[in-house]
Amino acid sequence: MKGYTILLTGLFLCFFSPLKAQISFSFMPEIQGRTIDNLYQVRIGNTGARQTVNMTIIVTEAKSGAITTINTPAFELMPGMNTVPPAAAYNSAVSFGNNKVATIVRQSGFFPEGDYDYCFRLYQGGGHNGDILAEQCFSYNLQPFSAMQLIQPYDGDKICDKRPSFSWQPLLPAIPGVQYRMVLVEVKEGQQRAEAMRMNLAIINQKQIPMPVLLYPSLANPLEEGKKYAWQVGAYKNELLLAETEIWDFTVECEKEETSLPAEAFRSLEDLARGNFYIARKQLLFAFNNTYSETTLSYSIRCLTKPDQQVKKLPKVKIGRGLNQVVIDLSENNSFTDGYYYIMDVKLPDGQQKQLRFIYKQADQ
Amino acid sequence: MRNICERVLLAMLCPLIWLHTPALALENIQQPVPDSLPQDWSVQPLTSQPAVKNAVVDAINRKVTNIPVAGTDSLPFNRLGLSGLHNGARKEFTQYLSTGKTAAGISRMNTMLTGMKDTAKRDRYLDNKLRGFYALRQQQLPGGLTLPSAPENELQGISWKSAYSDSTAMTSGWWNEGVLKDRLTIASVPIQLDYSTLSGYDYSNTSLRDAHFMKFSFDREAYLEKVNTQLQKQYDLDKYFLEDLDIKSSLKSYAGQKLASLNVPADSLERNISADQLMYLDSAQLSSALLRNHDPSSAYYQKVMELKKEMGGVKEMNSMLGAQKQVNGNIEGWISQPGNTSRMGADLLQMSFLQKLLLNMKDLKMGSIGADASKRTMSDLFMTGAAGSFLKNNKFIMLAAGKSNEMGVQDAGLQSATGTGSYGMQFIRMGRGDIGSKAQSHISVLNANAKPQNSNGFNTRAISRNVFVGSVSQQCSLGDLGTIDIELSKSSGQLGNNSHQEAASVSRSAASHFLDDIWATASVGLAYNGDVKKWGLSHKVYLNYAGLGYANPGAPFAGRGTLQYGLMLKRSWLKNRAMVSLRTDIRNLAVSPVSDNKRRSLQYAIDARYRFTRRFSLSMNVLENTLRESAESLKYTAFLNRKISFTSQANGRIGGKSFSNSSTLGIQQLDYTMPDAPLRSLFINAGSMHTFMAGPGMVVLNAMYNRDLKDAAVYNNQLNTEAGYQYMLWKVVSCGSSLIYMDSKDVVTQIGLRQQVSAQLLKRWSLSISVDCRQNLKNTAANYYYGRFNTAMSLNYQIK
């Protein structure tokens, strides 16, 4: 009798097992179990015929308990691999548990840290009390992805390098097979960076980056000075984009040698000495005739605004025979203060002494 | 529906009251931003300055021919204080007031001018019209005061770019970008039309993926320029501001007339007061002069003293006369800016309602647009829809509506699993002050509904979801100390379609649950920005918080579950020769609402630069960025990026030829957790770019070396060198030719040639082509990045 029972049980199992095995679920909780929308990426394998079904997804967390229950409306399950049709997904009824974890899921759609069970139950027909065609649960101890952050070049930075390196924080937790994709575009005049990111031809649109660093691709044309660029990094696995950073921008702008001072005419030292205060914009310009041999100009400068202030480190000025056009650069000399009054005593080679009064001004003011 | 509306309003009001923002405090709403003009006689109402008004009336009388006109005036000129206008001027002024008005409009105007209500408004109106009439360039009326209505079309430029690269890691080999820019002007309203297309061939799918973007935007600058041009054409604005009036003689003549009009017996004329005395004596002096000959109770004494009061004291008189020159200068500067004068356009030109409305429209665009307001309202959002902002009398309103798609054509080959999704949304922001202006105070509301994305080959699933976000943004000025920005935001999400549930009475509107789960769904931003000019110091301190449940579809890349704070200090010395900046960013990232586990990210960066001479400067960058995991049992550094680099920039002349050099030397530690094993590497980076003039062109030498001293990293062990020459051909073609050697250790070794040609053709066309061909000297299976061929071509037709 006992043997008979075992045989019957075996036959029963053999008979019903293939029926049960007609429908199977394929789900990757490490990727698809992170947001509520992605639960619908579950794939339903159907070796049987076409039929009308509906699905219930129940997510529970080990400590907090019930998180969410999703009931889809009826949809057609076709032979082969199926996903939940978008319309059925959109019109699902969703209820949530009464705990903090469920609150976060309800508000943001993201699952926070936890030990989750994801159960998929497929019912026959349109109601949730029909026959259960298949049920399968997946467990995963979920660590949410870190918010990826760009590092360098910093947002709004000005850099001179036309082939810069880019770096960002990696996606955590590290999942096998995760790679990075970086997009760099030019932001044209009048564009917002979000527009540039979508509408412009990318200068770099590089996938398969294994490290959170990218050296500027050797094959790509260098960046151009004066232009603004926007960049963004995404982490993906296979064809699934898992996380994206903010969009940052930077401008390529090298420090320029200060623009040359406006050409000013060289006025005769005679005139200047007779006149009122002369405005010296970062430099003193004057001209005089020298009938004597080459020598070094003998001159000194005193501050009138603050007489105790010493004017030091004046450059040596060489003068030749004939007309001399003298330029004395004062911009690098710390003795000069914007708006202060000065007087220069010059002893010309012929023995004449001249005095030139001037106001020192920064050129850009 | 009414129920929902009430709840929405309640939800908006509650946080406002809670936060006690001045945005709602009506009594705090300030007067419009005062004009940048000096508040003196030239801009003050003529009605309060009878002497000046009299001068204007005299000037008008001289300008307009006096033709005796039969009949009575249609306006009460005497009551309006314009009795001095002669008949010809009255007729033309009446005509000017009626120009472009319908019968109903004229009737309304007459009612206002003849009625007794709101005399202040009437005076303002009259003041503006009198000045306008005086400033008219041509006296032929009516006509000419409208904006040109003929439609115009101006093609501004077209461009096409194509690029091909065989690097396998590029998403697509071929990319094309086409852009067309056009400006259509209807009724003087310029609309910018931008069409662009982006397409690419995907390696996995040989079909072309393309996207088309159309954007219509109101060109504010061009519009104001048009209004200004028309205004300047019809009016002499110098005259509007009474710049050509000889105030001194006008005042004297006014005083003389007034004195003469005082009925004094002829035999006592010599004892009377002269115009000069009236103007230049103060009240006490005038009184004693009068008392010599008149009784203080006499009518003459009383009338003269009244006249003195009307004309103002000596101090005011002198400052008025003395300030005229300076005022003229200020006004000249003011009227040269289209933004200022166009505001006068609304009063002086005949403009339709729409044309007047657009004068205050800051921004209006439709189509494929980016929308930005602030970090917690709308930020870096790209959508298909419309957005506009309006600012008048310091009152601001911004409206936006559209649909955002999470993925674009450049994401070909990917499907989203980020959970941020695509949304249809409506947004309103309103309050006092412009965005970014000091003393702005705004409230914003965003309502969004999740939508699946089924375009560009993307097919995402989304659950029906409604998200409601309410925000308050405030900027306070601390004067010289800087500004404080405060932004508070709260989201509320409702998921799913409850139609199958019994609890159908539960509202699905997120707005009705706005006050639920406050801390989990709030986001707060505080920032202080300031500078001390004397010390060359600028600084910023900030604090941001976002709850784990905060979701804002208007800011798709905003963080959740973060507490972030940091500071930035920047100081320069010695006339900007030395500069140091310090930046720290600390972020605590929560992972769960029920545990204390978190991640902590710390970054600090120091940048320093010293300019030794005009031709040589040295800079340093120190950076450390770490990400630490902190769980109950485990605490470790999951990521560390530590770097120090020195860069020099030099330029000058060697042997009479100019050169420039930029060189970098750095060391970088990069440790992070990989799925299989931790990676610990130590890179040295060295790079130099040197250019110098040689012959007719310029030589460019470039070398970059990056090497992992620990041999742990597979990639980024690279030597890249280039030697090139840039030169001009036939004066219009600029060329660059480079030889390249690139070695990526254990991955690939290449030599190559890059050729670039760009030319300006027929003034408006420009063409640029670059080709880079490489030969692999060594190649391995690990080569994902380094292709052998890259070409790009761009053709531009630019009108402006």
Automatic annotation (TrEMBL), chain A:
Q: This protein is called what?
A: DUF928 domain-containing protein
- Which organism encodes this protein? Chitinophaga tropicalis
Automatic annotation (TrEMBL), chain B:
Signal sequence range: 1-25
Q: Which UniProt keywords apply?
A: Signal
Superkingdom of origin: Bacteria
Q: Give the protein name, as stated in the record.
A: Outer membrane protein beta-barrel domain-containing protein
The organism named in the record is: Chitinophaga tropicalis
